[in-house]
Specification:
single chain, about 0% strand, mainly alpha, about 220 residues
Amino acid sequence: MEHQEDRSAPANEAHEAQAAQAHDVPQLDARGASRRRFTRAGAGAAGVILTLHSQPGMATYGNYGGICASPSGFMSIKTASHNPRNSCSANHSYTYWRDNYKSWKSRCGTHSTARFCDVLTPRGAYVRVKNYTLLQILQQHKDVRAVDGSFVLLQCVTALLNARASERAGIPSVLPEDKVVAIWDEYSLRGSYRPSGSARPWSGLEISAYLQTTFR
């Protein structure tokens, strides 16, 4: 039986854990810590998501129906229902892939033992975890958490598995593998990603938030 999915990316910052321990206060769970981290980034860092949430009648992402659009379509609020050739129907969150790793080969043609450097190019601080497996990335090994504070690698690996699953199922994905690679390459080179030529660049947190909107 497939495990229930959690739409929030995990955040387990060392200073939060230390502070909680020092004051004998229960530590935040993954969902709470993620929300706190995202809140600290401010409305500016989450501007795209907040803009969508403010639209009357607009479905939110994650468990609530999801915006399903390419990066450029996301900026212009074009959902999958307006572009039926693109779909998120085969997409899952990182927790699904993490908890169902034995089905990776059959579902997306990828082994859970494949290394990060085998599918994406490690750059900068990410070189430190280049030989970690994709499953270790999704399990958020402590070394991965240390370099992936905005969860971009976590969500890119998830998106890549989704893209491969869609291709294997013959479903035109809203975010095919080449687009996932392009997002990663630009972010790992520049520290941001520009969803369209006229748009302002997205921060790591915004990239991560966008990618989560493509997971059903």
